[in-house]
Amino acid sequence: MTSATAPALQVLETTFGYDSFRGQQGEIIQTVVDGGDALVLMPTGGGKSICYQIPALVREGTGVVISPLIALMQDQVDTLAAVGVRAAYLNSTQSLEARREVEAAFLSGQLDLLYLAPERLRAAADLLDRGRLALFAIDEAHCVSQWGHDFRPEYLGLSMIHERWPTVPRIALTATATAATRKEIAQRLDLGTAKQFVSSFDRPNIQYRIEAKAQPLQQLLSLLRTEHAGDAGIVYCLSRASVEKTADFLVENGITALPYHAGLDSGVRARNQSRFLREDGLVMVATIAFGMGIDKPDVRFVAHLDLPKSVEGYYQETGRAGRDGLPSTAWLAYGLQDVVQQRRMIDQSEGDLAHRRNLSAHLDSMLALCETIGCRRVQLLQYFGQESEPCGNCDTCLAPPETWDGTVPAQKLLSTVVRLERERNQKFGAGHIIDILLGKTNDRITRGRHDALSTYGIGQDLSEQEWRGVVRQLLARGLLAVQGEYGVLVITPTSGSVLSGDTPVPLRREAARPSKAARRAVAADLPGDAMPLFEKLREWRAGEARAQGVPAYIVFGDATLRGVSVTRPTTLAELSQISGVGEKKLEQYGEAVLAVVAGREPEAPGSQVRDAVASGTPAATAPVAGFAPEPDDAPPFDDAPPDDAYPLYE
After folding, report:
1. E strand map for 159-296
2. Which cofactor does it need (predicted)?
3. Topology, domain 528-605
4. How far apart are the first and last CA of the chain?
5. What whole-number distance in Å separates Cα of residue 277 and Cα of residue 75?
6. C-alpha closest to that of 65 among 144, 133, 153
7. Domain 5-198 identical in fold to domain 206-334
8. pLDDT value for 97
């Protein structure tokens, strides 16, 4: 342990208000402080940002952070300003004058951290050459992987960092990457000799739930009303049309919801995103382009109304819930049409055979997670190479599903597919094949003489919904395939062993939903006598946030307010011992918090900030050069439309 450890711990305590590092944070920070390179895999909410922020504060010079999103830059700068760190960004939303002010601050050594978009790094290279550099941090490093779920072509140029500034330490960070993706990150960013830190991928506060899709909008509404009333959350949808429809449905049912997708005017996107960050209890309905880098700690649920295309994408998206460590829900409604649609999109996707095979492998892993009868968390962590025990906090642990012998139903269904093709030279989708098995009478069956097939009516022992589950699970296992634009069903090379009886087909029977008590068993709520104070503190915090024009969590996070509610400090010294209360926040908010705890009226919101500005002393949230709020017409990405990287979804 070197002498730099003490300065790092001091910064952690005095600036950020924490008394110890978590997990591998200390070792990562020490590596970079000592001038070494690091590749860091740490789950969302695990404290990745501190791993480069503290070294930037300990080392001489300015830490340069490569970040793909304007929203993330703004959010990080606001958060850092609130604890007294000198931070700024350079991006396309700024005026020439604002950029020059930031550049001057950098050159004069007045910045601790400078945020840049990857496509702006080359243009800023001459500026960086003239300043003192503490480190380079490459955030969301998985964007460099062309086989990953979130590829950004501009990340491929970041190898120039080592070429141009070989003595400046680099730290690349991501919340999700398989071993293959990790290897590609190291190769493309020239980090072959960097020390790698792989933290546990487990997010124990998140409860994973996947249920059969029946009436998905009603299922979503039930989730929000019974478990997450008044909570902030994100709902992910496959298409722009579905985003609009879902947002309208929620609003009609009394839930404050906003849409977000690339088809919206950039000003509307920026305003909706700003409201989501700054208001409590708002639901954002979005395509999957929304969310990367959104540092909102109190997102209590992430819901998917459509099947994600990969486990990595699912993990990244669900990881936006519960960054503050409090109980949160990851919920997915999944049905037969999801499988058909994803298989069809892969068949029609651009790219060579290797690319389509890669997409299929990603989807197969996602389907395996959906169909598992074991612990979902075990399956999820296993995908990233981490062994674990059953968690007791997912739907399959709380209400274990049953299995049943589906060999005969599988044979009936596959036989119908075979007979239609061989006897009628016809192929159909799942709906019509199920109609044949159920013995229904309609025009298509009559015209095609499908009531003369030997399998007509032999499946009446199962309901239509049960048959859809059979089809879905056969597709998930590759015992059945989707073909063509219309998604017709065809047999696969492995179907023959099922038809011959050589391969049994155990199927998953949908379990009853776990009780509300079981679903919320992940952690106890606040003690009853602490709740009134907690709500008063939230009300005070909301007023402060509105007065300063910042998200509420930048004032204090829920976890800190809970700590105050339970311990009820009466002095500044006692308040300083609560996690998340650093020197700057203690100075700025301490007396007001103590007043709320004591039942007194605190000072008017924002008064300490205004006093600091009037006296010429910059307060944590006072305007600083380059810190102007994002304009209404600012695009959320720097020089790239938000859904461009997701052709499979849009």
Report:
1. 170-174, 195-198, 206-212, 232-236, 257-260, 283-286
2. Mg(2+); Zn(2+)
3. DNA polymerase; domain 1 (1.10.150)
4. 50
5. 9
6. 133
7. yes
8. 93
Q: Model confidence over 622-649: pLDDT tens digits? A: 333 333 333 333 333 333 333 333 222 2
Q: From 374, 28, 319, 52, select the one nearest 202 (Cα to Cα).
A: 319
pLDDT tens-digit readout, 112-125: 999 998 888 888 99
* CATH of the domain spanning 206-334: 3.40.50.300
The token pair at 225 is 């009303």
**CB of 573 within 8 A of CB of 646?**
no
* Gap between the Cα atoms of 296 and 79, Å rounded: 11
Amino acid at 472: R
Token pair, residue 541, equals 């915090």
CA distance 627 to 613: 15
Query: What CATH homologous superfamily does 5-198 map to?
Result: P-loop containing nucleotide triphosphate hydrolases (3.40.50.300)
Domain ranges in the chain are 5-198, 206-334, 336-371+402-509, 528-605
In this predicted structure, the answer to whether residue 348 has a pLDDT above a threshold of 50 is: yes
Angle (CA) 299-537-543 rounded to 5° is: 85
- Confirm whether pTM is higher than 0.90: no
The angle formed by the CA atoms of residues 448, 452 and 458, to the nearest 5 degrees, is 115
Backbone angles phi, psi at 425, to 5 degrees: 55, 45
- Which residue in 451, 464, 456, 455 sits closest to 499, CA to CA? 455
Report the C-alpha gap between 121 and 625 in whole angstroms: 20
| Neighbouring C-beta atoms of residue 55, cutoff 10 Å | 27
In the CATH scheme, what is the code of domain 336-371+402-509? Answer: 1.10.10.10
Question: Per-residue pLDDT tens for 253-277?
Answer: 999 999 999 899 988 988 898 889 8
